[in-house]
């Protein structure tokens, strides 16, 4: 079974530029998550989708970050404009279920963003 | 916001030694999770704990859900070089979907 796919793996941009990341979850997984992992820290949830609806985006900086999952499958996360503090690894994860108990999350390899 | 305090931050051990790391929170969680992250990869789930007092093993790994529901520990017995990596605890609080991660314990194993 194919895992969670993310692209690109690495991206270097200058501050105030825009960037987009793509995620393709495991086939059939209803829930998709985007996390931000700053160097030396644990992942922090940015947004969680259940099918194509948003479950939680309370920690997404909505003035510059946006995410969509239009057909309930793959997803894009965009930053516009980027700031130096956005340098981090952006992890995508998916889980099979939709109910209120824990479903194991399967993580992709991440996209490492460097903002200069 | 909710925080998990994970300790130690890093450990340098000799191959064959046992390792113990723990996580504490000011909040009650109804699920505790332990993940391992290798360089350039996403975290991989090692053990999930669902009940206070639960003790669960996965090979050489053993984890426990504290009875207060505010802490958990992970033990690794007879460490080997491939145990090197970052170990994260994570918790889900009652009624929530959001997973809160600790800052990680970096494990270095010398052969």
Characterise this structure.
The complex is a heterodimer of chains A (116) and B (111). Chain A contains no helices and eleven strands. By secondary structure, chain A is an all-beta fold. In chain A, the strands form two sheets. In chain A, strands 2, 4, 5, 6, 9, 10 and 11 form a seven-stranded mixed sheet that branches. In chain A, strands 1-3-8-7 form a four-stranded antiparallel sheet, with no helix packed on it. Chain B is 0% helix and 58% strand. Chain B has no helices and eleven strands. The radius of gyration of chain B is 13 Å and the shape is globular. The termini of chain B are far apart. The chains are: A mainly beta (116), B mainly beta (111). Chains A and B meet through strand 5 of A and strand 5 and strand 9 of B.
Largest interface: A-B, 21 and 23 residues
What fraction, in percent, of the residue positions of chain A are helical? Answer: under 10%
Outline the low-pLDDT stretches of chain A: none
Globular, elongated, flat, extended or rod-shaped: what is the shape of chain B?
Answer: globular
Largest sheet of chain A: 7 strands, mixed
Q: Uncertain segments of chain B of ≥5 residues (pLDDT<50)?
A: none
Tally of helical runs of chain B: 0
Radius of gyration of chain B equals 13 Å
Largest sheet entry of chain B: 6 strands, mixed
Sequence of secondary-structure elements of chain B: EEEEEEEEEEE
Number of strands of chain A: 11
